[in-house]
Amino acid sequence: xxxxxREDFDVGAELTKLTAGRHDVGGVVSFVGxxxxxxxxxxxxxxxxxxxxxxxxxxxxxxxxxxxxxxPLAAALIIHRYGRLEPGDRxxxxxxxxxxxxxxxxACQFLIDWLKTKAPFWKLEDTDQGAQWVAGEAGDxxxxxxxxEKPVAVMAGPGRRRETRPSAGLPKRKKNKRG
Amino acid sequence: MKVLYFAWLxxxxxxxxxxxxPPASVRDVGGLLDWLKTRSPGHAEALKNLAVVRVAVxxxxxxxxxxxxxxDEIAIFPPVTGG
Lengths: 179, 83
Description:
heterodimer, A: alpha+beta, B: alpha+beta
């Protein structure tokens, strides 16, 4: 379920609603994004979140669908606000519910990482150094990048490894094979 | 076709939306951006660095070689910063 709204939301009420009557749910994971009062050394008085009505909803729905394709979720919720917000205000709520916690944790992290690079929102910060549009952060791209599904590794030929695997740096175990 | 601008692209272009009829030689997003740059110094300034410009056609992200046609809704905006 996705919602794009100007108004604040009540986290407790939303989580209760999300799992009401769902006795197959073993755990709920939630992420709440808040407005910080500092950004790159500038003090923020407020920020205005602009979005692209229509495409925002479409993208968020696609992101939720992708999470449901990857993990067995009993329920998922994304609420994203727009308009003028002040430090401490809630911006976004992502919540996932599943029979087991791992799917809920992973899916929640995926949703917020993916959303940050795909949902058409832009932040205009009102700082003590004037109003400035927030530029996308490389860290956000990296966070989203780790959720990109890798194709099955194909050996491109001798000595050419396409993917670095976590195990690549480990010393090889010697085989004590005799005769 | 309808062109929408968001965030700092809107302020630089000086409009949130405009209805345009590009020449028939404009066939894809790249061609459209090149043509839009000729409309005003504001357009040229807004679109001078395409590394910080994203485009959606009919609300789906597309690349520069994506075809455009009459009736399309083209949105031009900076990299997104939600969440």
